[in-house]
Design brief:
Shape: globular
Order of helices and strands: HHHHHHHHH
Helix content: 40-55%
Distance between the termini: 49 Å
Mean pLDDT: 78
Structural class: mainly alpha
Low-confidence stretches: 1-5, 19-28, 55-67
Number of helices: 9
Length: 212
């Protein structure tokens, strides 16, 4: 993988020229969502634009086993896990993809929690540019009709988040024990799908289950 010298200086220059345009309505080609300078940067830094959003199987295995990881590698791993679920028979709908993009935006700070102090603050402009976000919020409210895929969407994202951050602690509040147990079973099932698709040795996250 080619590395870019003086990474922060390069990105500071790019961010100063950045336009936070939405990718909505544009061609599916990821390159179209970024300026030429950002595409050039991503090609040099990650090999290609798509490599940042969807990690290869071997890279995912390497990242998972690596002792030294940062927030950006966790973002790549999380996105690769969501892509693995798509390949594994749980292809997400358009709205579920929108939900997950907002979920990622909300938890992004957590992915930098174990990085050196100040890493998230210094990376903030880069995160906005790379992900085509205009801001980062830590709350998400979703209100849709029934049977819209909300529960499954939450389970898919939780599984991907656990895969990217195995030591994370996640609490999900639901209306009754039946739904809580279903959420738990789905999360376990989706983690197994991710492991199978990414061909990595399964770690064993701790699930506490339903709490009265």
């Amino acid at each position: 993988m080619a590395m870019v010298e003086d990474d922060d200086a390069v990105f500071a220059d790019l961010v100063s020229k950045a336009k936070y345009d939405s990718m909505a309505g544009k061609h599916d080609d990821l390159d179209n969502g970024h300026s030429d300078s950002i595409v050039s940067f991503l090609n040099k830094r990650f090999g290609s634009v798509s490599a940042f959003y969807s990690d290869a199987h071997s890279a995912a295995a390497t990242d998972t086993a690596s002792a030294k990881r940062d927030g950006f590698s966790r973002i790549k791993t999380l996105r690769s896990a969501l892509a693995a679920l798509d390949r594994g028979g749980w292809e997400r709908s358009y709205h579920q993809r929108c939900f997950h993009e907002q979920f990622l935006n909300a938890v992004i700070k957590i992915l930098f929690k174990t990085d050196p102090p100040g890493s998230f603050e210094r990376s903030y402009p880069r995160l906005l540019e790379l992900n085509n976000w205009s801001e980062i919020r830590q709350e998400v409210l979703i209100s849709t009709p029934r049977r819209f895929g909300k529960t499954i969407s939450v389970c898919l994202f939780v599984a991907a988040l656990i895969y990217a951050c195995p030591s994370i602690e996640i609490s999900i509040y639901s209306t009754c024990k039946r739904i809580s147990c279903k959420l738990l079973r789905n999360c376990i099932k989706y983690i197994q799908v991710i492991h199978a698709q990414c061909r990595v040795t399964a770690h064993r996250p701790v699930f506490l289950g339903y709490v009265q």
